[in-house]
TrEMBL record, chain A:
<dbReference type="GO" id="GO:0009055">
    <property type="term" value="F:electron transfer activity"/>
</dbReference>
<dbReference type="InterPro" id="IPR016174">
    <property type="entry name" value="Di-haem_cyt_TM"/>
</dbReference>
<protein>
    <submittedName>
        <fullName>Thiosulfate reductase</fullName>
    </submittedName>
</protein>
<feature type="transmembrane region" description="Helical">
    <location>
        <begin position="179"/>
        <end position="200"/>
    </location>
</feature>
<keyword id="KW-0812">Transmembrane</keyword>
<feature type="transmembrane region" description="Helical">
    <location>
        <begin position="12"/>
        <end position="36"/>
    </location>
</feature>
<keyword id="KW-1133">Transmembrane helix</keyword>
<dbReference type="Pfam" id="PF01292">
    <property type="entry name" value="Ni_hydr_CYTB"/>
</dbReference>
<dbReference type="InterPro" id="IPR051542">
    <property type="entry name" value="Hydrogenase_cytochrome"/>
</dbReference>
Automatic annotation (TrEMBL), chain B:
<protein>
    <submittedName>
        <fullName>Molybdopterin-binding oxidoreductase</fullName>
    </submittedName>
</protein>
<feature type="domain" description="Oxidoreductase molybdopterin-binding">
    <location>
        <begin position="102"/>
        <end position="249"/>
    </location>
</feature>
<dbReference type="Pfam" id="PF00174">
    <property type="entry name" value="Oxidored_molyb"/>
</dbReference>
<feature type="region of interest" description="Disordered">
    <location>
        <begin position="1"/>
        <end position="22"/>
    </location>
</feature>
<dbReference type="InterPro" id="IPR000572">
    <property type="entry name" value="OxRdtase_Mopterin-bd_dom"/>
</dbReference>
<dbReference type="InterPro" id="IPR036374">
    <property type="entry name" value="OxRdtase_Mopterin-bd_sf"/>
</dbReference>
């Protein structure tokens, strides 16, 4: 027997989908800036495994000679990125949604099991009742929020290295803060690849939950109808996004 | 079709009813999402087609200027940029030649202070010795290029504030300063607070040596609270102004403030 179960509150869906184009444009404008001093690479000594970035990459995405444009977009959209992030974190704290997202001690072991399952090395375990996310998701989603905070801090450190000299020094100085800011961006790209692959694997029901807010659950399964309760304090029915 | 969930029926809704409700809510959500996405694309389209102010769509330019004003409001104009041990100083690469294309005759060079108000109605012409007569200040700070690289440099010169106090004291009532190369090809605008910052120097020595031609001999600006684009080389003239002056790189799409 089927049942509609609310999953993602309307506010979280908006935060999620506003963040997607904003972060994409921040990465794009960041690349326009990075092009002007593209000195990072993976390697040791004189051996370079991966250069950030090959000329073909800049050419393909038309990133050459656009530093001023990149800075303008970056320092306009930083407001949208920061505001959306702060509102999201505030909302999760006030609504109680943070309880689903924050990893617990169990999450780490569970994340290992999820990884083994995803690699086809272990059969799937039954979904735990009363939870929206498994341990691997909790770790990934919490990490990406911390990365967002990291991008704001490292970004501020290279944006105002005199006025915020203490912050810049704490992050290892101007050049280190720039490296950290860049590394976090690479982290988002890696997150994005895994995230999209997992959404594809999880299927339509899971994707639709991030758009429309609900999942269709087959309650004849082992889980009880209350398997996925609404958040502890947010009891209003979610409206479509 | 009545909404079965609102009826006091003991029976749960049928699977078909659940699927219909799922389809209805999905349809609404995807339509709202699609409209929002189109609005976003439309907003971007609107933004990139706005008339440009100094090579930037005016809304972007407005936000950059607002960012600059916010920084001036929030931050202290006298906060010092971090200083480094002199041993960390390196020679920066030569990165700008605009305004340096004509040969320079060091003996004939003068720093011209434009008339700004009575009693200075004639331009004042100063020699390098006039600048060197001011207290010599040495600082080791990080030069940050707007391109993203940085290098620690030991600078020596006269504080711009000392120069103003000695040669143009009445100019301190004017909010802006404009500096230009002798040929006028490169020019920089500064707010007075940044110009009077204790680390803003009229610099004549780099890493213990007199400035080379490529690095801006005989006199260049050093202002560690700004990006390197404001460190104008081979200063030919200084003007104190009531209106915000044009700036070479700001006219080419960069932030006028370019501050740290």
């Amino acid at each position: 027997m089927k049942k509609l179960v609310d999953k993602h509150p309307l506010a979280i869906r908006w935060f999620h989908w506003v963040n997607f184009p904003v972060l994409a444009l921040m990465i794009w404008s960041g690349l326009l800036i990075y092009w002007a001093n593209d000195v990072y690479r993976l390697g040791w000594g004189r051996t370079t495994v991966l250069k950030f970035f090959p000329q073909s990459f800049y050419d393909a995405l038309h990133l050459n000679f656009r530093l001023a444009e990149g800075m303008a977009w970056h320092f306009v959209l930083m407001w949208a990125f920061a505001l959306n992030g702060v509102l999201y974190v505030t909302y999760t704290l006030l609504s109680g949604e943070w309880r689903y997202l924050l990893p617990t001690r169990r999450s780490f072991a569970e994340a290992g099991q999820v990884l083994l399952h995803d690699l086809g090395l272990r059969p799937a375990s039954a979904p735990a009742p009363g939870r929206k996310f498994n341990g691997a998701q909790q770790l990934a989603y919490t990490t990406v929020i911390l990365m967002g905070a990291g991008s704001l801090l490292t970004g501020l450190a290279i944006y105002k290295p005199t006025q915020l000299a203490g912050l810049t020094a704490l992050l290892g100085g101007y050049e280190w803060a720039r490296i950290e800011h860049f590394a976090l961006t690479i982290g988002y790209v890696l997150f994005f690849i895994v995230h999209v692959a997992q959404v594809v694997r999880a299927g339509w029901n899971s994707f639709r939950a991030m758009v429309a807010g609900f999942e269709v659950v087959d309650v004849s399964d082992a889980v009880s109808p209350e398997a996925m309760p609404s958040p502890p304090t947010a009891s209003s029915p979610s409206t479509p996004a | 079709m009545p909404d079965t969930s609102s009826l006091p029926s003991p029976l749960p809704p049928s699977d078909e009813a659940v699927e219909r409700e799922a389809a209805r809510r999905s349809r609404r959500a995807f339509i709202v999402g699609g409209v929002a996405a189109l609005a976003g694309l439309g907003g971007r389209r609107w933004l990139v087609t706005r008339p440009e102010t100094d090579r930037l769509a005016w809304p972007l330019r407005r936000v950059l200027d607002a960012n600059g004003r916010l920084a001036e409001t929030l931050f202290s104009p006298t906060r010092l940029a971090p200083e480094f041990p002199a041993g960390r100083a390196r020679m920066p690469r030569v990165n700008g030649k605009v305004g340096l294309k004509t040969p320079l005759d060091p003996a004939a060079w003068r720093l011209r202070v434009e008339p700004y108000a009575p009693p200075l109605t004639q331009p004042l012409e100063l020699t390098l010795a006039d600048i060197q007569a001011l207290p010599r200040v040495e600082i080791t700070t990080e030069l940050k290029c707007i391109e993203g690289w940085s290098v620690v440099v030991r600078w020596a010169g006269a504080r711009f504030a000392d120069f103003v106090a000695r040669y143009a004291p009445a100019a301190q009532t004017l909010p802006y300063v404009r500096l230009a190369t002798p040929d006028g090809a490169y020019y920089v605008g500064l707010d007075l607070a940044s110009a009077l910052h204790p680390q803003t120097l009229l610099c004549y020595e780099m890493n213990g040596q007199p400035l080379t031609g490529a690095h801006g001999a005989p006199l260049r600006l050093v202002t560690p609270v700004k990006y390197g684009i404001k460190y104008i080389k081979r200063i030919g003239s200084i003007a104190f102004l009531a209106e915000r002056p044009a700036d070479y790189w700001a006219q080419r799409g960069y932030d006028w403030h370019a501050g740290h």
